[in-house]
Amino acid sequence: MPDARTAPWRRLPLTWLGLAPFLIFSLLFLILPTAHIVIGAFQDRSGAFTLQNLRDLNTGTIPSSYWVSIKISVASSALGCLIGFGMAAAVVFGAVPRAIKAPLLTFSGVASNFAGVPLAFAFLATFGPVGLVTLFLRNNFGIVLSRDLGFSILSFWGLTVTYLFFQIPLMILIITPALEGLKREWREAAEVLGASAVQYWRMVALPILFPSLLGTFALLFANAFGAVATAIALTGSALNIVPIQLFAQIRGDVLGNPNLGYAMAFGMIMVTAVANILYIWLRIRAERWLK
To answer: Which residues neighbour 119 within 8 Å (Cβ) at sequence distance 6 or greater?
Structure first.
């Protein structure tokens, strides 16, 4: 007769069996590729250890590509936070009908994961040289986006606007629970003490939400900085950003240097890792107030 004290341990593998597909998927498509990139960043073409790949990150157009990528990530994150916060606040605090909340969150869940080639095609079909909006403004109002407004889908602001399609929904998904965590008693207490709506937001709500806002900004920055497929599919080689430079190094032709590409990818991993760690730390601090 089996010992009752050891039975739970015997059942443990079956209990964890449902996690096996996720663990295998993470190992094959996240952990092992990341380890391969990190190791390759410190190897030369013959496989010997070297730091030259990291030194080469400061040569040519690579530093400027990092700087452009950082600026695009900051711009799309800041605009995504601002617009997404306004939309989430309007839904949570009743400025728009409550019936919009469920469809908005559902759409945000889908749109926050809509990226890559489909997103690039959608924006090219809308704002490209022969896109729907481009032709509509040209034919009906005589406005040429590139000439009159200085806007091109293959430019800095073109890529930034494209990133907003998934940055704004991601902001809505993350900040909505934080807004719902603001207790009504805090606002009522502020009103009893004579505080106006502006004073309540400036002195009570925003200080409480600040860790959540800053953490979400860090997450959106990492999300934009690591968006590779969308940038390559949309701009090709028209914009000097890290994903384009990385693709040029690892695509396999004789002019490329795969190990330098690994070093560039390693730099991207470090930047996004710092942003994600900052987000996790700030999220923990924010949850202390909102519990």
So the answer is: 162, 165, 166, 230, 233, 234
